Amino acid sequence: TNNEQMAIAIMSFYGLVFLFVIWKKKIHLYLPVVLAITFLNIVAMLLSPGNFAREAAEVKNWNPAFPSYTLLDKVEVGFGATMHHFILNSSLLFLTLAILVAMGIFYKYKETGLRIMASIPVGVVLMLGFLGKFLLVLQALGEGAGLRTVFRVVKENTVAFRAFDPTDLSTIIPLLLVLLVLGTLLYSIHKLFEDPWKSWEIFMVLGVGLMTRLLMGFSPTIFASGVRTFYILYLCMIYVTAVIFQEVSTLHLNHRKK
Fold it and tell me: Which DSSP string corresponds to the chain?
């Protein structure tokens, strides 16, 4: 799985770079060669007899309904499971990124609307995850539970992922919250940088990382693979967090000089 993810990451990154250099009319032979090799590598992995045998065994063990999934279902599962991990279950890395973006907006702009928009991702993640777990802990302690029970409650009582159903309000609301968080966060990142190309660079890096996780929607073991399938996305988010931290530090120093 990790090899397939890396191949998708390389394909996505160099594909975007190739489109950019075509737009700039500065095509280099290196890029199409890398794209061709990576594409052939992906085709070889897809056609490997071992992968077919492994998938059949994993479908039987982990997700018997997987063969009935449509292309849209698989993309939805990959996207939903990823957003569930970062937003609905409160990832510390995602929260750190959201806080840094909000700080930068507060330093750079005085408009109330922009500040509220930048605060939405932080507020949603805190309320759905960390605050929710804190309240569960208080409830468990209030009922006289021991520490072992408290830890079990925190681990098990998280927002469970459920496939989107347009007729089920309980799946519509989480999707709307996820889209609200992503929309406000990406717009705030765009407003944070004076150079629009810098924000597009960040979007490209995040997009490449997200593609590696969307790929997991095409695997029947997406919920059994654990966090190891997040490592490329984690690296992309760490890079983005570092870039935004540098920008926020500059804004902080300028703010202190005023």
Answer: -HHHHHHHHHHHHHHHHHHHHHHHT---THHHHHHHHHHHHHHHHHH-HHHHHHHHHHHHHH-TTGGG--HHHHHHHHHHHHHIIIIITT-HHHHHHHHHHHHHHHHH---HHHHHHHHHHHHHHIIIIIHHHHHHHHHHHHTT--HHHHHHHHHH-S-------TT-HHHHHHHHHHHHHHHHHHHHHHHH-SSHHHHHHHHHHHHHHHHHHHGGGGSTTTTTSGGGGGHHHHHHHHHHHHHHHHHHHHHHHHHHH-
Residue 175: Cβ-neighbour burial (10 angstroms; 0-12, 13-18, 19+): middle
Model confidence pTM above 0.90: no
In the chain, pLDDT over 70 holds for what percent of residues? 71
State the Cα–Cα distance between residues 127 and 130, nearest whole angstrom.
Answer: 6
Confidence of residue 184 (pLDDT cuts 50, 70, 90): very high
CA distance 181 to 119: 10
Q: Which two tokens stand for residue 231?
A: 């490592």
Q: What is the CB neighbour count within 10 angstroms for residue 146?
A: 10
- Give Cα 220 to chain centroid, integer Å: 19
| Spatial distance between the Cα atoms of 210 and 29, rounded to a whole number of angstroms | 27
Closest CA to 94 of 117, 68, 122, 73: 122
